Amino acid sequence: MIILTQTPPKPLESTPEDPQPPAYDARMMVGDGTQARLVLDDQTYFLRITRAGKLILTK
Predict the structure, then answer these.
(1) In degrees rounded to 5, what are phi and psi of residue 49?
(2) pTM of the shown model
(3) Which of 3, 11, 33, 54 could form a disulfide with 22 if both were Cys (CB 3.0 to 4.6 A apart)?
(4) Over the Cα atoms of the chain, what is R_g?
(5) Other CB atoms closer than 10 Å to residue 47's CB: what's the count?
């Protein structure tokens, strides 16, 4: 499990012709594992990649 504390991951690129909200590669966020912790204000959430390749976000 990777804990991001100081530097947020760099978003994937978008083009000026096709502006998109920031995109992050979930596999980069979980590293060699299948889970990452995400913190919003004082709440911690868990992002998990299932064996079927789906994402689950839980509190």
Answers:
(1) -100, 125
(2) 0.68
(3) 11
(4) 13
(5) 18
| pLDDT 10s digits, 24-47 | 899 999 999 999 999 999 999 999
Q: How far is the C-alpha of 48 from the C-alpha of 50, rounded, in Å?
A: 6
Q: How many angstroms separate the CA atoms of 35 and 49, rounded?
A: 7
The three state secondary structure string of the chain is CEECCCCCCCCCCCECCECCCCCCCHHHHHCCCCEEEEEECCEEEEEEECCCCCEEEEC
| pLDDT, position 40 | 94
Question: Are the CB atoms for 36 and 2 separated by under 8 Å?
Answer: yes
Matching residue, tokens 């992002």: 47
